[in-house]
Specification:
By secondary structure, the chain is α/β, with parallel strands linked by helices. The chain folds into two domains: 237 residues, Vaccinia Virus protein VP39 (Rossmann fold), CATH 3.40.50; 64 residues, rRNA adenine dimethylase, C-terminal domain (Helicase, Ruva Protein, domain 3), CATH 1.10.8. It is 37% helix and 16% strand. It has 13 helices and nine strands. The strands form two sheets. The chain has a seven-stranded mixed sheet with strand order 4-3-2-5-6-9-7, sandwiched between helices. α7 links the parallel β5 and β6. α3 crosses α4 and α11 crosses α12. The longest helix has 13 residues. The two termini are 40 Å apart.
Length: 332
């Protein structure tokens, strides 16, 4: 997973004096320009061949060696299907020479598939016990860097250097949404995302007005990116198996389709969905308009005063935001 109290690295579990020297040598081999907030792996040992895939049996053996037990509290469901891992790499358009960030790298099944393309991979993992197992895998993958850190606190401007990046990740269920929005807001160098999330979450993220799943998070994401569902994913491809399906999403950042400032737009969106059974007239009153002014604002935007938030798209929310806050500075 990918949350931590800090971004400091830890040493592998004690095995022998020789293994401790190898760990120190690997740390010294990091290039000067790389961050020291995480562990840098990627030095093949003893001429061993890089792993081509990590299936369920290999993952369980790896976890056992490191005393890893999947944590329900951390939303840990490790991808255990090498075919799907390779498919995700294809869907993400990852190729030799690309830079890819993987958040919630876990035990490395997707990491191996991404590395096999010849891309440079930054594998971010929160759980320190899992991170030790991930470093074992990454030691055979020369273009993989392991960063043990909280993805919600990572300084992406420091970690994602060298131009544009892609993201391909099996995100932990319990923090998928804040991770995505954090990256969208703080990592403009990531130009395309293919991520796996819980189905219910994915459907909310990709929903459009009038759809049952449509909500504040849908409108917030539509403000800054195009979103599509690529496919459903069965629980059977994970270890341990979750109780729900997942989906693969493609998220492509772009300029907002409306000129209204987010600091004006998002409060109207959030208030509109705060009480879903209430009308937008009530939401505007809660934002400070008088009941009469709320009706005039809605009618001025061509809306029925009884309309609810789930029927509104970004242009309608933007019009109402301008009625509440006034028109912000032109993006022009």
């Amino acid at each position: 997973m990918d949350r931590s109290a800090d971004a400091s690295s830890i040493s592998p579990r004690r095995r022998s004096p020789g293994s401790r020297r190898s760990a120190r040598a690997s740390a010294r081999s990091a290039s000067p320009g790389r961050s020291t907030t995480g562990s840098l792996s990627g030095i093949p040992t003893d001429g061993a061949e890089p792993p081509r895939s990590l299936g369920r049996r290999a993952l369980k053996a790896l976890a056992a060696r490191h005393g890893v037990r999947p944590s329900k509290a951390l939303g840990q469901h490790f991808l255990a299907d090498p075919n799907l891992a390779r498919r995700i790499a294809v869907l993400a358009g990852v190729d030799r020479g690309d830079r890819v960030v993987e958040v919630g790298a876990g035990l490395g099944s997707l990491t191996v598939a991404l590395a096999a393309t010849g891309a440079e991979v930054l594998a971010v993992e929160f759980d320190r016990g899992v991170g030790a197992a991930l470093r074992e895998v990454a030691a055979y993958l020369p273009h993989v860097r392991v960063l043990e850190a909280d993805a919600l606190r990572v300084r992406w401007d420091r970690e994602l250097e060298g131009g544009s990046w892609k993201m391909a990740s099996n995100l932990p269920y319990n923090v998928a949404v804040p991770i995505l929005f954090g990256l969208l807001e703080r990592a403009p160098q990531v130009v395309d995302y293919v991520v796996m999330v819980q189905r219910e979450v994915g459907e909310r993220l990709a929903a459009w007005p009038t759809k049952q799943a449509y909500g504040a998070v849908s409108a917030r994401l539509a403000y800054q990116a195009d979103v599509s569902v690529l496919r459903r994913v069965a629980p059977s491809v994970f270890w341990p198996e979750p109780q729900v399906e997942s989906v693969l999403l493609r998220i492509t950042p772009r300029e907002p389709p409306v000129s209204t400032l987010r600091d004006h737009l998002f409060p109207v969106v959030d208030e509109g969905f705060a009480q879903r059974r209430k009308t937008m007239r009530n939401a505007l009153v809660r934002l400070g308009l008088s009941p009469d002014d709320a009706v005039r604002a809605l009618e001025g935007c061509g809306l029925d005063p009884r309309v609810r938030a789930e029927s509104l798209g970004l242009p309608e929310f933007a019009c109402l935001a301008e009625a509440v806050f006034g028109r912000g500075p032109d993006r022009g």
